[in-house]
Structures are given as structure tokens and as C-alpha cells.
Amino acid sequence: MVPQPEMQNDVQPGAQPTNGSEPQQTPMDQMPQRPAAPESQPPMSEMPQQVPMGDEQPQAPMNGMPQAPMGAMPQQPMVMTPTRSGMAIAALVLGIVAIVMFWIPFIGVICGIAAIVTGVMSMRKINAGNLSGKNMAITGLVTGIVGLVISAIVLVGAFSMGKSILDEANQMDSSTSSDTTHEKARSDKGSTDQKLKDKEMKGSGSLKGGDVKIASAQRGPDDFEGHNTIIVTYEYTNTDKENHSFRDGLRDKVFQKGASLKRAYYLDDVQGYNDDSDHTELQPNGNLTVTVAYELNDETSPVDVEVSSGVDYMGKAKITKTFNLQ
Description:
By secondary structure, the protein is of the alpha+beta class. Among the domains are: 85-164, no CATH class; 200-323, Immunoglobulin-like, CATH 2.60.40. Helices cover 33% and strands 20% of the residues. It is built from four helices and 13 strands. The chain has helices at 86-100, 105-128, 134-197, 246-249, and strands at residues 83-84, 131-132, 200-202, 204-207, 210-220, 229-237, 244-245, 250-256, 259-260, 281-282, 287-295, 303-309, 318-323. The strands form four sheets. It has a five-stranded mixed sheet with strand order 3-13-12-8-9. It has a four-stranded antiparallel sheet with strand order 4-5-6-11, with no helix packed on it. Strand 4 and strand 5 form a beta hairpin. Helix 1 runs antiparallel to helix 2 (105-128), helix 1 runs parallel beside helix 3 and helix 2 packs antiparallel against helix 3. It is rod-shaped. Mean pLDDT is 76; it is low at 1-23, 45-49 and 51-56.
């Protein structure tokens, strides 16, 4: 007799034990299935969006910014940096140059004007567009104005100083030229005066004190002392700037045989003779006929008449004329 294997007490999974009978095997389709490995979940962005139910309204994006899809990395917004205005930089540089170079007036003035124009234009562009550099433009404008004012003051001062130097130089030249001219005039005048001083004029001429012409000489009546007389007639013109008489400006002398004759005086009036005519005062350029009587030494000798200047005692110029009594 073949021995029977012992019954295993182990209960197979899924078998239901029975009383003294063989365990019944559970069919395969009735056996519990091991759960399969979960498949990879699709990205959240590919998952269908949940449709709101009923009266629920979709939530609006926060802060007005669109929300990134579920599972997507949030993107940072790009910040645009304003472009700095090149004209503002130029205005600042020109303004600084205008202040630094003020001692060269033309450069300071030109750079100052350029800085002001460039600063105003850059501020207009900055206010109109997305540009930066407003503070630089304002600084350039201010420095341009300051540089322009300082340079203009220096320029005006330089012109004034130059004009003053030129005026002084012109005055010195004029003074030198005037001194030379005056010296030459004095020299010429001195030469002329010397010639006049040494000149003897016959009958008429110009003296320092007046123009004189020895017009005539004729016999006159006896004077109050009974002397024979001669009356000499002069044509006199006052050439001085002041009033003068014949006696004030001139000296008259009459000689006979080399000796001078005395002045004669009459008790009665003599026709054609005025004893006060030589003392009559004349204005400048005034003229007068002057008559003077002289006592004769004899009745036959020629008479020499001389007239010289009464104010130039060193002068040798004279007017002479000789009259014969026969």
C-alpha cells in the first residue's frame, strides 16, 4: 500500500478550506488583482481646466497680471532701463568748459551759448520721450549760463582795456606830433620873427603892434615956442587882439642930420592936423590916419622918418622913409 502524502495545513491564498475535503482552487478571474503601477500623470498644463459649476464665476487674475498655468514656472517681468540722453551729457560738458575757459573770452562765450541751447533741447526730448539725464541737462544749462556771463564780463573788460590803451597811444602820438608841429611852427615863426626884426621896410610894412604906412610929410606952422615944424602923416591899422592906439603899439622917430626931432605943439587949430590922433584907441583891425608934428632943426636938411614896434624892444625891424624939404 502506497503511503499518502500528508496534507499541508498551509492554506493557499484564495482557497477556501472545507471540512475534510480538498481545497478548492479559486478561478483566475476571481483572484484579487495586484494593482498596476500608476502611469505617469500628464502635465498640469495639459489637464482639462475645471469648469465652474452653477453660478460660480471664474476668478480674475491677481493684480491684473495673467496667471501662469498650473505647473509652469512663473516668468519675471522685464524692466526697461531708460536711455540716457546724449545731448544732456553734451550740455554738461560744454557748461563745464565754459566756466573753466572763461579767461579765454571767445571760447567761454561760444561754449556757454552751445551749453544753453543743448541743455534746452535735451530737456525737451527728455520730457517728450523715455529718456533719462534731466539733472545733467539742468546742470549743463546752469553752468552754461554762468560761463557765458563770466566770459562776457571778461570780454567787455578786455575790450575796454584795449580801447583805453589805444586811446592813450593815440594821445601820445598826437601829443608827439603836436609837439613836433608846434616846435616847427615856433622855429618857423622864430625865423620869420627874426627876419622881421632884422628887416627894414621902405614906406610901409607890418610890425608887432600894427601895420603902418608913412604916407606924407609937409611943413607946418610954427609951434607955440616959435620953432619951425613938420607934420608927418601915418596910416595905422591895429593888428593886435586887444585895443591899441598908435602910441601904445608903435614908436615913431624923426631925424634931421642924424639927430632926433622933438614933438611940436600948436596953440591954434591947424587944418588937417589932429594932435590927439596918435592917442586914439582902435579895436582889433581898426584903422586911422594919425598926424604928428615935430620941431625942425633947420629948414633945408632932409628928414628921415622911422617907425618901429613899441612892444618888441629887442626888435630891429623898422619902416623908414626920407623926405626932402626943398
